[in-house]
Amino acid sequence: MAAKYTGKYTKAFLSDKKIKKESLEYDFFNNKISVQENEMACIFSFKGNKLLFCKGYDKFLGIPEEEMDLLRLNSIFTEFYEKFIYELHDRVLLFLYNNNTDLESFSSHIITHVEGIEAPVMIVMKVYSTDDNGNLVSIIGRNYIDENLITSDVVQYAFHGDFNQEFKNKIDNDLDFTSCISYTNLRVLEALETGKKMAEISTMMNIEESQLNINIQKLLKRFELKDESELIEFAKAKKLIPNQFDNYLKKN
């Protein structure tokens, strides 16, 4: 059976509408949003299915701002990461569009690779604005080029938001793309590596101990490992722990 979340929903919002640098909205964002030396940033509207603003892509990708559009923006990732990103974005966008409570609490972080950039890239996505009814209007994306990030054949990602536990658990533990691990599970592995017991981790992370055990079993099955000791060694060998998200979560 074909995977359900292949980017079809996300692609429905993509268009080749070009940025209008002479527009008032572009001037507004250009004056409001600062971009660091190692960063690319953009804002895209789901109401208009278009980019409203972008900066930095000309420097790192050689794409002039006036030639950037949503279709092009979503084709910059290497094939391996693109599959993961499309599934995550499909699931998240479907949720955001069917809910209008606390959407501005949403953020996602993914360590990835972009075509034409040698160093890894941390993608940070956040809801930028909602309408008076709480519905999604626009999202801001920031891509940090960071040679200190370490990647492997396991995609590392973080997901945050004041959403129901069932949805958060699905994102953290049950994506169809199997070669990945969430920040939530990375924190569990870090705690296990320091000798903490499941009861302690349960209290620390406010997750039921039974759910933590289920999540560990899923990781063992996913990566074809025998026990927690093998899982910890696997995480260290793949450079998954210590996690690489904490500094980014503090500043974003």
Note the topology.
Elements: H1 8-11, H2 24-32, E1 39-45, E2 50-55, H3 57-61, H4 70-73, H5 79-97, E3 107-112, E4 121-130, E5 136-145, E6 155-160, H6 165-173, E7 180-182, H7 183-193, H8 198-205, H9 209-222, H10 228-237, H11 246-251
Parallel strand pairs: 6-7
Antiparallel strand pairs: 1-2, 1-5, 3-4, 3-6, 4-5
Helix pairs in contact: 7-10
Description:
The protein is an alpha+beta fold. Helix content is about 40%, strand content about 20%. It is built from eleven helices and seven strands. It is globular. The mean pLDDT is about 90.
Secondary structure category = alpha+beta
Largest sheet: 7 strands, mixed
- How is the quaternary structure best described? single chain
Unreliable sequence segments: none
Cα-atom Rg, whole angstroms?
19 Å
**Distance, first to last CA:** 38 Å
Overall mean confidence score, pLDDT? 92
Strand-and-helix sequence, N→C? HHEEHHHEEEEHEHHHHH
- Strand count: 7
Percentage of β-strand residues: 15-25%
Query: What's the total helix number?
Result: 11
Helix content, binned percent? 25-40%
Q: What best-fitting shape do the alpha-carbon axes yield?
A: globular
Question: What order do the strands of the largest sheet run in, or round the barrel if closed?
Answer: 2-1-5-4-3-6-7
Keywords:
seven-stranded mixed beta sheet, alpha+beta, globular, single chain, 11 helices
